[in-house]
Amino acid sequence: MAGPSGLERRAVPMDLRAAGRRLEGYAATFGTEARIADFVEVILPGAFRGALSPTRDVLALVDHDPGKVLARTRSGTLRLAEDPRGLSFSLELPDTQAGRDVLALAERGDLGGMSFGFTVPKEGERWQGKRRELRAVILHEISVVSAWPAYEGTVVQARAATPHLDHARRYLETIHVTP
């Protein structure tokens, strides 16, 4: 559904296993049909590639609420990548009320799925009747959602963070060395 300023949001269900302060999984999957209002939408491989620029700051939120920030790419607490399955993510949960709540719900298996907020650039979509193919999107945020998602097939797992390894990885990323 489109929100203010043309921002669209899509949600996807997830499998969830909780075991720490990190969430990992997929915020979107490719080739999965979602019924949105009176049309069907499919995300094509490569749709997020341009949106994952290192200069772009993408947020991880709870239920699309900008008052409940869990992580962001600018700080390195949110990592996003596109692989053959879809848009994968890894986020370090903060020790805030929102972070503790998400972790508790994840451990119980009570979360509904993942979602993402985006806009579509010119030439980023193709319509065939009532079928929309997303070929390129500008990603603004991903969200952990507590209710009903639009897309099937996302996976989220809570993982225990390894502080020393994570610190070293962030340092290596800042100097552009792949561990």
From TrEMBL:
The keyword Hydrolase applies. Keywords: Hydrolase, Protease, Viral release from host cell. One of its GO terms (biological process) is proteolysis. The keyword Hydrolase applies. Pfam families: Peptidase_S78. GO terms for molecular function: peptidase activity. InterPro entries: Peptidase_S78_dom, Prohead_protease. This is Phage prohead protease, HK97 family. It comes from Magnetospirillum molischianum DSM 120. The lineage of its organism: Bacteria, Pseudomonadati, Pseudomonadota, Alphaproteobacteria, Rhodospirillales.
